Amino acid sequence: MNTATFFGQMAKLHDTPFFVLDGEGLIVAVNESFATLFQASTADLVGTYLDPLLAENSPTVQCAVDRAQRSNDTGIGAFRMRAKDNPNLHFPYAEIAHRSPSNGQLHIAFRVHRMTEFLLLNAKIDALRSEVKERANSENERRVALDQLRTILDSMDSLVYVSDFETHEVLLINEYGKQTWGDIEGKKCWQSLHAGQTGPCDFCTSEYLFDDNGEPTGVYVWQIKNSLTGKWYECRDQAMRWPDGRFVRMEIATDITQRKAMEDKLSDNLKEKELLLHELSHRTKNNMQMIKALLDLKIAGIKDPRMKAILRETGGRILSMSLVHEKLYQSENLADIDLKSYIRELSEYLIQEFNVEDKDITIDFEFCEPEVRLSLDQSMPCALILAELTTNAIQHAFIGRDKGELRIRLTWQNEKRICITVEDNGRGLPNDFDLDRAKSFGLKIANGLACKQLRGDMTFQQVEGASFRFCFDRQFPPEQT
Known about the structure:
This protein is 42% helix and 24% strand. The chain is of the alpha+beta class. Helix 8 runs antiparallel to helix 9 (305-330) and helix 10 packs parallel to helix 11 (376-396).
């Protein structure tokens, strides 16, 4: 049996496309499966060349012939053929080359793989190749991003480290941290950064870095004295995305040991200053009360009613200033006093001091919200004005009456301006009364303090009795302006 006959019989045995070429590229045998691709019979194809069936972008038959002549062995390859329903059909094959021992004639048999299996395999290979490439690119991008991040962090003079929320493994620590704590990447943060820890730190801030919806809350700032270094650090913690997509905890810890020492020193100095100011206010109050007591002794020995009244008014002014220092002494910050409580205490004292005829005089207070606090610079003139207006009403408004009522109002005129009104339901003042031309020494003092020292104004109004109001801009404390 010659070679051509042998391959012809082999063609009939295959259910997949099978054909045989001679050394010139001439088809010498085909099976029905191959002929069906071109809607032709086996007789139509035998004796024709394969080249006209190939697509333009296909390897040539000569390539397969040359390879067979060189190796005289099996091989694999693929043609692209002009099939009836597909002008560019991918045609993978396995080839077997055979040279006749008798005459040296070359024949090459081509067995075509099943297309569906091949295409699926090829698709899987392409997909795998694409995935490998994407992973390689992604890994390279992560590596570049991590290198860039490390370069930036290593330039900082603060500890910077990144740890896993679940395992507490240190994923990255910068050069500053390595110099103090060593290269602890891969170790537990609570074991490496702090001393004496047997588990995750009870002061760990991880719970503050996410909201109820699992979203990062931003930077959380806190301070701690490190148990390994003995230094104070200000820590800025936050949740961030790691290159692999998971959330990690990043902490930037800055050494603030020197700052804490300065703060402690300032705090000690401030406490010392507060003690001195408390003592100063206390002694000033005591000295003023001593002066007031001496005046009271002098008054007791004077028979002239006019002189007694003058000394009593002077004592009232001293007491109003003494009460300011008492309020400062009782205050926690020594910077200001609560104006509401001061007005109440001063008014009640003045009634006891100057209601010598024991008349039924009541006081109605009307205070605004929020709380009004004044500095010492404004409290002292305000106290003197209140003392003068209240004393004046007690002494002169209810002459010839058994009882009377005082009304003291503290209100806001605007966001900065305070108004204090002192009015009575007494006999009032003459119709031609002019505050700027008042002869009363007390009213002159009150008007002068309101206009010049407080840089405000004072007005008078004739109502049921007399009504005086003075207004000024509050200058302290600035955080309440």
